[in-house]
Amino acid sequence: xxxxxxxxxxxxxxxxxxxxxxxxxxxxxxxxxxxxxxxxxxxxxxxxxxxxxxxxxxxxxxxxxxxxxxxxxxxxxxxxxxxxxxxxxxxxxxxxxxxxxxxxxxxxxxxxxxxxxxxxxxxxxxxxxxxxxxxxxxxxxxxxxxxxxxxxxxxxxxxxxxxxxxxxxxxxxxxxxxxxxxxxxxxxxxxxxxxxxxxxxxxxxxxxxxxxxxxxxxxxxxxxxxxxxxxxxxxxxxxxxxxxxxxxxxxxxxxxxxxxxxxxxxxxxxxxxxxxxxxxxxxxxxxxxxxxxxxxxxxxxxxxxxxxxxxxxxxxxxxxxxxxxxxxxxxxxxxxxxxxxxxxxxxxxxxxxxxxxxxxxxxxxxxxxxxxxxxxxxxxxxxxxxxxxxxxxxxxxxxxxxxxxxxxxxx
Length: 411
Prior knowledge:
The chain contains 15 helices and 17 strands. With 411 residues, the protein is an alpha/beta fold. The strands form four sheets. Strands 4-3-2-7-8-9-10 form a seven-stranded parallel sheet, with helices on both faces. The protein has a six-stranded parallel sheet with strand order 13-12-11-14-15-16, sandwiched between helices. It has a two-stranded antiparallel sheet with strand order 1-17. The longest helix has 22 residues. The protein is globular.
């Protein structure tokens, strides 16, 4: 007889699908190992593109978007800021009060977008039977100095100190010392743990078989990915312009995977540009690792998930990090380039001629042999969360009967 338990995941980011992928990977591992566990995710992004494993479900919050300066606003609904904020907050509070989770995993934003987690965080902390609350952050958030200043100004450190039981860092200290750079433990006193990088656990497979399965017949294949694709159009256009500079005699095919969030007019423009080139434009793929495995060279922005897949497969990788409004991608690209894992292009190097030369050099080079940082983040994050769930269960079992939560029993 098992005691049914549940985890609520808040995944509120609005750009790309990387946060969803990371949390779904962790949730999938947890439900595999814990037959008594359900996971419910709150997300701002459409979830259908990624799918959910059994016993993992999603509640979709009204979508937000960011302008070039990083300010948030509605993506689709014609609501004022205060209306949309109130709607999202009420959905969150309703889900939390109905589910009564044993553990809450908050991704990236300690107080939620627009501070929308504030009421729930305070409610959980006042409830002696409330959930264990955990913050999960990727390796690099933004410029450390700016982040520390804004977190102090906006009371984020105070919220972590008052409302959180632990911080999980999805990265490696030797690549970027997240705990120190963002003063996590020093400012909050909350234990912070490095988990290693959270990446796909798909088998590497065979490059030839992957190409055959995808109908790729060229001798050499370059795959360009833009994550969710919301801001990937300039990179994809540059890749097509570079391909036009590569010798026509080269037996090469370029596959551009735009991502499901790229605008339809941008995708159509890329298809027009690719019409007379050895290139195919793919909107959204069911099994991205197969395309990555088929590649001789990868072109990508410096998003967390795209970089990790390239690292895991040890593919020669050319990186064009997003230039703003956050410094996250530039910092990640620089750190990994220093370790010889990727080739990062600076802003002044992003010309068709220069990119064409770099692609040709990468095609002629062996795979990188740099030592990779720990890539077992799924294992370590799941282990930490299981431990916290068990600690909470022990604490409640030792408390007076009146403090024990109502639970469902599953035979």
